[in-house]
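Sequence design from tokenized structure. All designs in this work follow the same two-part layout: the structure record, then the generated sequence. An example of the structure record is given first.
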């Protein structure tokens, strides 16, 4: 399974719930956990994911440039 957003096959379209502005994708939430985490294989990162992670979902962090809200978006992985 792979994330279509991480692999450039599909854009992440996220809308800020606070102001309705289109938000920017900051990448996978696991990439923000440490300086070397973007270079770790996904299988290794599965062991250190945040609570609530589920298989088949790639969690991305998004930021609104208008109101500065930061939130998570779940992206369904493809088979």
């Amino acid at each position: 399974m792979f994330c279509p957003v991480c692999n450039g096959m599909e854009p992440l379209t996220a809308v800020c719930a606070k102001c309705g502005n289109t938000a920017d994708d900051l990448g996978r939430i696991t990439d923000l956990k440490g300086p070397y985490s973007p270079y770790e294989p996904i299988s290794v990162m599965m062991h250190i994911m945040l609570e609530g992670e589920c298989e088949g979902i790639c969690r991305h962090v998004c930021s609104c440039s208008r109101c500065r809200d930061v939130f998570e978006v779940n992206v369904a992985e493809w088979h």
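The chain has one domain: 14-76. We note this feature because it recurs in several other targets discussed in the main text.
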